[in-house]
Design goal:
The complex is a heterodimer of chains A (228) and B (559).
Chain A: H1 2-23, H2 32-56, H3 67-90, H4 98-125, H5 134-160, H6 169-181, H7 183-192, H8 198-227
Helix pairs in contact in A: 1-4, 1-5, 2-3, 2-4, 3-5, 3-7, 4-5, 5-6, 5-8, 6-8
Chain B: H1 2-27, E1 35-41, E2 44-47, E3 50-54, E4 59-65, E5 77-82, H2 88-96, E6 103-108, H3 125-140, E7 143-144, E8 148-152, H4 155-169, E9 180-185, E10 197-205, E11 219-225, H5 239-261, E12 270-276, H6 284-291, H7 295-300, E13 301-308, E14 316-321, H8 328-343, E15 347-352, H9 366-371, E16 376-380, H10 404-423, H11 443-453, H12 468-480, E17 483-490, E18 495-497, E19 502-510, H13 513-539, H14 541-548, H15 554-558
Parallel strand pairs in B: 3-7, 4-5, 5-6, 6-8, 11-12, 11-13, 13-16, 14-15
Antiparallel strand pairs in B: 1-8, 1-19, 2-3, 2-18, 4-9, 9-19, 10-12, 10-17, 14-16
The chains are: A mainly alpha (228), B alpha/beta (559).
């Protein structure tokens, strides 16, 4: 519904990323380079995923939930995790504390995801005369995605970058990382298999992202105590 | 120097890519309407300089139903009125008192559509026919300064209309600030149709000339006008007026061509078949066609039978004449028809209407013949002469209002009467075109042509010279007649027509501006809260407070 609506949905989708960057100490330590590099890694990962999906996946006629196809998609989704691993460990960052590194990487990752997946539909659709709730829901989904990406980056940095972890927490860390990594498959199952409506799915995503963020924050601070 | 040249080239290519991207981005405008419907515009024409019909085509206004709150300003609103809720007095009041309105959209029941309606029966036929006739009469003779469109009801439009009625009932007519539905028809300004042509098609079937007979054989003419005129020119199929006449003419041509193909059964009369155009406009085409005749040919015409609406009668047909009934020729024709009618168990009546030469109005086609001193009569189911632009194929004149059996009986009547006159069987009870004979009237032929005609709108200004339908009529007549001629003329100057007869309507569901303002407020506060939350959790409350405190002034330091 005209440029005004487009502007509203755009700030809902991309505003939190900018706010996160400026509000937290990330802006003080000038970690923009890290975020940009993480965004480029996301782009590369997305291309690789596209090629794999095109090669291995069959297009089904009905929009139902096919377990075999979904399993394949989940496996390809782990390429995401590999990309994140690459961004966290292999890229040579300047000397930033681990605390800030994972935040910067997660932020860049989420921003690239939002831009690639949501900017085009927003530009094409939200500017028309027709009004739908879809774009506002998409913006909320982008917010949930931001939180999830940061939690995944946190758990990832715990797994790969921190050497001394309390033994008891390791399985929990891996379990949480697994859940967050398979979130896309879970949401697609909800949408196709259980046939939830879009608002319900977005609500579920927001809820789980907050829960996972809380858990990973607790885990991170728990792991931080021995070295502190 | 080389490097700067290279970099400038690179920059230029970059600019072209960026420009292309911008163009691509600006051009992507997908159809995102809640519903898209085919709509048909009210006719727009000038008669002797006076404007009639709907004078605009483009539409971009909010929609309202007939239950709008009284006293609301409707100058930027389109009223959607389905036919079953139509209140003619209300519409008449709006039009005659020239009240401001953004537009009118009439919804016709789907059964009347020749594309989707099929052959389903129309409920309450007579009532609908009367209502549509009245509406058409009102719209065609008024000058309406806003767009008027017709559309057929379907599920999408019904849901939209129900929604609009609900909104109106709550007292919230749609405007820019309260949301609702917007109707958009993006068409250009309607333009005049340049030099509209009317095409007359004539077929000639030669009679048997005996050796040594120097005189011209007498001719009998059978004429029907094939074009229509209605409130919505894209919907004017005129199945009864005059599709029935055309079908009857073609069938009679077919039967007589069978008879005339064998020299032993060829009659001593020539037969002239005429499919004329320009019927609604005082039979302008017929006049021009007759004027183009050779004087000898005109004098050789014994009589002419014009066919006008013979598709929906039960038991009575009328023969309309302009010469007094005492005239010998008229008596002969009428007696011939009555005798055959008696045998076929139907009635034929005679109606006499004098011609007024000073009055330009020509209500029947035979009047054009009579003005040139040719004996003629019109066979029709109508007992009264129609007014200007009435009975010329309007909104209700579709396939459902025509009866094939009526046309078949009419063809039998005319064919037998003609045959008795040609072969001199007056008074004898001989049936040439009996059922089950090789000369029987073919119902399948009649049905297939009637179906075709009921799907072809035929308003003359919108039929080009080489219109495929006109070519089809010519080809069909050429199959039956010895010689076919096509005559192109210009429609007489007092009529001017405008194009843009159909369009596509997009119905958008829009949200109000206040909604977006509220949304902006909510989002702004959400982002501010998020900012404060993050600052507090990562840097501490002091940082947040320090953001709002001014930095300590230099004076303190130096002091």
């Amino acid at each position: 519904m005209t440029m005004f609506h487009f502007f509203n949905c755009a700030i809902l989708t991309f505003g939190p990323h900018a706010v996160y960057y400026s509000a937290t100490p990330l802006s003080e330590y000038d970690t923009l380079g890290t975020s940009v590099k993480a965004a480029l890694v996301y782009l590369g990962t997305a291309l690789v995923k596209l090629v794999c999906l095109a090669t291995f996946l069959q297009v089904s006629e009905n929009d139902g939930f096919d377990p075999y196809q979904e399993l394949l998609k989940a496996l390809i989704g782990f390429i995401d995790v590999a990309g994140l691993f690459f961004a966290l460990t292999q890229l040579t960052h300047r000397n930033i504390s681990q605390n800030h590194k994972f935040q910067a990487v997660g932020l860049g990752w989420a921003f690239a995801d939002s831009v690639l997946h949501r900017l085009a539909p927003l530009w094409v659709g939200a500017r028309g005369l027709e009004f739908t709730w879809d774009y506002i829901l998409q913006g909320l989904e982008a917010n949930a995605n931001l939180v999830l990406s940061i939690s995944l980056a946190a758990l990832g940095s715990l797994i790969w970058l921190r050497k001394n972890k309390p033994k008891t927490l390791i399985p929990i860390i891996y379990a949480c990382a697994g859940i967050v990594a398979t979130m896309p498959s879970i949401t697609s199952y909800l949408r196709r298999g259980l046939e939830w409506h879009f608002p319900k799915v977005v609500g579920f995503e927001l809820f789980t992202s907050l829960v996972m963020a809380f858990i990973s924050w607790q885990l991170f601070s728990a792991c931080q105590r021995p070295s502190a | 120097m080389a490097t700067s040249k290279k970099s400038s080239e690179l920059l230029e290519s970059m600019y072209s890519v960026i420009a292309l991207l911008f163009i691509l981005v600006a051009c992507v405008e997908l159809c995102d309407a809640a519903a898209a419907v085919d709509v048909y515009r009210l006719i727009q024409y000038d008669m002797s300089g006076s404007p009639f019909g709907s004078r605009f085509a483009a539409l971009n206004h909010h929609a309202a139903s007939s239950r709008f709150p009284p006293g609301a300003d409707l100058s930027r609103t389109v009223l959607i009125i389905p036919l079953r809720e139509l209140n003619i007095t209300f519409v008449r009041e709006y039009i005659t008192q020239k009240k401001p309105l953004g537009g009118l959209l009439f919804l016709l029941p789907e059964v009347l559509s020749f594309k989707h309606g099929g052959n389903k029966q129309v409920p309450e036929k007579e009532k609908m026919k009367k209502l549509l006739a009245e509406l058409e009469r009102l719209l065609v003779h008024s000058n309406i300064p806003y767009p008027v469109y017709f559309a057929f009801e379907n599920d999408e439009i019904d849901t939209v209309l129900a929604d609009i009625k609900k909104n109106d009932a709550m007292g919230q007519p749609a405007t820019a600030t309260t949301g609702g539905y917007k109707l958009v028809i993006p068409t250009a300004e309607p333009k005049k149709v340049a030099s509209p042509t009317i095409t007359n098609i004539q077929g000639w079937l030669s009679g048997l000339k005996a050796d040594g007979d120097a005189n011209q054989l007498p001719t009998i003419a059978i004429v029907a006008s094939y074009d229509t005129f209605g409130a919505a020119p894209a919907l004017s199929v005129g199945s009864d007026s005059n599709g029935s006449g055309i079908v009857a003419l073609l069938e009679i041509a077919r039967l007589f061509s069978l008879l005339y193909s064998n020299p032993k059964t060829r009659g001593r009369y020539n037969l002239l078949f005429g499919l004329t155009s320009g019927g609604p406009y005082n039979y302008n085409g017929t006049q021009k066609w007759l004027r183009s005749f050779d004087q000898r040919l005109r004098e050789s015409i014994d009589y002419a039978i014009c066919l006008n609406s013979i598709g929906s009668w039960d038991n009575e047909l009328w023969i309309h004449v302009s010469k007094p009934p005492e005239n010998a020729y008229i008596k002969q024709i009428f007696e011939g028809f009555s005798n055959v009618a008696e045998e076929l168990d139907l009635k034929v009546g005679l109606k006499h209407k004098k011609i007024n030469i000073s009055n330009p109005r020509v209500a029947w086609e035979h009047e054009q013949f009579s003005r040139l001193r040719v004996t003629a009569a019109t066979l029709s189911e109508l007992s009264v002469a129609p007014e200007l632009f009435e009975g010329t194929g309007g909104l209700f004149d579709g396939r459902q209002y025509v009866n094939e059996t009526a046309i078949i009986r009419g063809v039998k009547l005319i064919a037998e009467s003609l045959a008795r006159h040609i072969y001199g069987h007056q008074g004898k009870n001989v049936q040439l075109f009996a059922d089950e004979s090789s000369l029987a009237v073919n119902p399948a032929y009649i049905r297939s042509w009637l179906d075709l005609l009921s799907q072809t709108p035929r308003v003359a200004p919108f039929l080009s010279k080489n219109d495929p339908f006109v070519m089809a009529l010519k080809k069909e007549l050429a199959d039956h007649a010895d010689e076919v001629n096509v005559q192109h003329e210009n429609l007489e100057g007092i009529f001017t027509f405008y194009d843009s007869t159909s369009a596509r309507l997009n119905i958008h569901q829009v949200a109000s501006v206040t909604f977006d303002l509220l949304l902006l407020l909510v989002l702004g506060s959400y982002l501010i809260v998020l900012f404060c939350f993050l600052v507090i959790t990562t840097r501490g409350v002091d940082e947040l407070i320090s953001l709002f405190r001014r930095p300590p002034s230099r004076k303190v330091k130096t002091a």
